[in-house]
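Colleagues,

For the teaching module next term, I've prepared a clean inverse folding example: a structure given as tokens, and then the sequence designed for it. I'd like students to try predicting residues themselves before seeing the answer, so please don't circulate the second half yet.
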């Protein structure tokens, strides 16, 4: 099903700079997004992988990697590729907020307290979701600590997604910094819970679910 399809995948964290040496970020490694990109490429898809700062490398003739740092840079890259992509997979852990102002030189340690004013970043999945055309399939990721299923179902509607891959930080071995993951796949019709598995195997589960759900939307 994926042979010849054009796929946009985001992976890894974003870093939102405070000054030339400091940033706001998260613990995402990009492993899940890279595993999905690898598997899709091996199945014949043409993959545009937009990756935040990560130590991972992926060399495959079917994968074009665009390296970005900030949420704004990731959004700009996604805008470039989204219209021609058949499948969108938003696996990146994009920072929700960024500093309102970025210092041009290193911030010195002068005062006992230091206040940073933050502003919202663009919601990449939600913004692109408004442009989604018939036939395109969109998958989002949700990492939650509370009201996991309720929040995942909410994202389906708010972001015009076909599927949400839910991770809970309550599950040992899942989430950031692990080679394994435990997911729940949420669609508009069903919820499917999977066991803890290596991320390469999790990628296969996600892609099999996409095949099934995507085929239903094309009937």
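(Answer key — instructors only)
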């Amino acid at each position: 099903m994926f042979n010849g399809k054009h796929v946009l995948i985001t992976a890894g964290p974003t870093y939102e700079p405070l000054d030339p040496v400091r940033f706001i970020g998260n613990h995402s490694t990009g492993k899940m997004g890279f595993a999905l990109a690898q598997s899709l490429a091996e199945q014949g898809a043409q993959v545009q992988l937009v990756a935040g700062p990560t130590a991972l490398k992926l060399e495959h003739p079917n994968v074009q990697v665009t390296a970005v740092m900030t949420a704004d840079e990731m959004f700009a890259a996604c805008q470039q590729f989204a219209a021609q992509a058949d499948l969108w997979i938003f696996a990146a852990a994009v920072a929700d907020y960024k500093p309102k102002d970025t210092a041009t030189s290193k911030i010195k340690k002068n005062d006992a307290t230091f206040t940073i004013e933050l502003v919202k970043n663009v919601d990449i999945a939600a913004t692109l979701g408004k442009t989604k055309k018939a036939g395109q399939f969109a998958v989002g990721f949700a990492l939650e600590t509370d009201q996991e299923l309720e929040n995942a179902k909410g994202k389906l509607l708010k972001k015009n997604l076909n599927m949400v891959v839910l991770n809970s930080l309550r599950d040992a071995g899942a989430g950031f910094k692990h080679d394994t993951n435990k997911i729940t796949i949420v669609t508009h019709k069903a919820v499917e819970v999977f066991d803890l598995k290596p991320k390469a195997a999790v990628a296969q589960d996600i892609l099999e679910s996409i095949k099934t759900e995507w085929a239903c939307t094309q009937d």
